[in-house]
Amino acid sequence: MGLVPLIEIAVPATASITIASEAGSRKRPGYAKRDIGGIGIAVMERDAAIAEVTDAVSTGSHMKMAFCNANLVNVAAGNAALLRSLATFLVLADGIGVDVGSWILYGKAFPANLNGTDFFPALFAGARRPMRVALLGGRPGVADRAAANLTQRYPDHRFSVVSHGYFTAEEEPRLLDGLKTDRPDLLLVAMGNPLQEHFIADKLGPQHCSVAAGVGALFDFFADEVQRAPEFVRKARLEWIFRLWLEPRRLWRRYVLGNPAFLMRIARQYAMGGRRSG
After folding, report:
1. Does the global pTM surpass 0.90?
2. Are 99 and 240 in contact (CB under 8 A)?
3. Distance (Å) of CA 235 to CA 18, 69, 96, 99, 240
4. How far apart are alpha carbons 73 and 97 in whole angstroms?
5. Distances (CA, A) of 214 to 90, 128, 199
6. Phi/psi at 146 (5° precision)
7. Interatomic CA distance for residues 8 and 191, integer angstroms
């Protein structure tokens, strides 16, 4: 993407511990959080998460969302700005990695696996009123194909494309002005971690949308660019292996190197604080 590159900041261990504590203690009203690697992840079922989104839309308020998997925990490690931003988001549990972390640290998994690929179709299918949904990010053309497919599947809602993810810094003010004018109910931001989380935290406010959600590669799935794992693989919580098989060159670092790194981070967190309640 054409935005100014983000610089990863090294954070001393003591600062990381402090941020982790803050992340676990800051709670939006109505639900608890579990601290997984310094990120406070909401403890909630899918219906409760959908209610958070629909409440923000119906009241015209503003909410920022992220989906936390093992990769986001790795990306956020040592990045003080990202950790502090995520402490103000509604962060949902995404994937088996954070469930493993929750088992180690809290003795139980999260109530639901709230990956965006399943969450948003459930949101769109169950919404009681039409929603205005804007797509921002992805490779050129992908968001357009995703919006076209979504319009066909969920005709009660209006889907529009703001831009692909390769806009320049010079183009950004026009893009943000357009969001102010349209103010969609839901803005899906697909730039990958941590670009999308930084963009949502630093660039977007109540004037731009009701809900801004970082969605990673979601547009690829909605546009039928990437095949989803068979249902039995998803039920076995092994979709990450299927994705690695499909895209080994792009994803090997995330999974082959990233998964052990994530487990080491969780082990260090356990060693520092033992089993938690929550």
Report:
1. no
2. no
3. 36, 17, 11, 14, 12
4. 10
5. 11, 23, 9
6. -65, -45
7. 16
Q: What is the DSSP string of 44-110?
A: --HHHHHHHHHHHHHHT--EEEEEE-HHHHHHHTT-HHHHHHHTTSEEEE-SHHHHHHHHHHHSS--
Sorted by sequence, the CB contacts under 8 Å of residue 81 that are 6+ apart come out as 9, 198
pLDDT digits (tens, 9 = 90+) for 52-68: 999 999 999 999 999 99
As a whole number of angstroms, the distance between CA 124 and CA 206 comes to 22
Asked if residues 65 and 213 have their Cβ atoms less than 8 Å apart, the reply is yes
Helix (H, G, I), strand (E, B) or coil at 133: strand
CA 8 to chain centre: 19
3-class SS at 233?
A: helix
- Tokens (6 digits) for 131: 């929603």
Q: Using one digit for the tens of pLDDT, what is the confidence trace for 191-240?
A: 999 999 999 999 999 999 999 999 999 999 999 999 888 888 888 888 88
Task: Name which of 106, 111, 119 is nearest 66 in CA terms.
Answer: 119
pLDDT digits (tens, 9 = 90+) for 1-27: 443 333 333 334 334 434 444 444 444
6 secondary structure, DSSP code: P
Structure tokens at 110: 């999260």
- Pairing label, strands 39-42, 33-36: antiparallel
Helix 258-273 and helix 96-106, axial crossing angle in degrees, nearest 10: 20
In this structure, which long-range contacts are made by residues 9-15, counting pairs with CB atoms below 8 Å and at least 24 apart in sequence? 9/78, 9/79, 9/80, 9/81, 10/78, 11/78, 11/79, 11/80, 15/80
Q: What is the pLDDT of residue 238?
A: 87
Confidence category of residue 156, pLDDT binned at 50, 70, 90: very high
Residue 189 has φ and ψ, to the nearest 5°, of -115, 115
